[in-house]
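Run Putative septation protein SpoVG through structure prediction, thanks.
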Amino acid sequence: MNITDVRVRKITKEGKMKAVVSVTIDDEFVVHDIKVIEGEKGLFIAMPSRKSTDGEYRDIAHPINTATRDNLQKLVLEAYEKADDTPAEE
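Sure, done. The structure for Putative septation protein SpoVG is below.
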């Protein structure tokens, strides 16, 4: 799996969510709404999710293993750091 494009939309509102990201895989598949969140230990990504009928949030798309998640997070956070500092309105 190759991440072939990462698009970052920084957020202007105060809060923990810093950006919303879209990732293209192998120039063939896109995952939208990956969030960059500021946590107690620094920035991390949260995969797109939906609230289920029992009130729990469940990921819609997510990496299967830790190595893939770590690689995806590394690439997204690198793109976030390089992104234009002019945030998009949300």
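The helical segments are 66-82.
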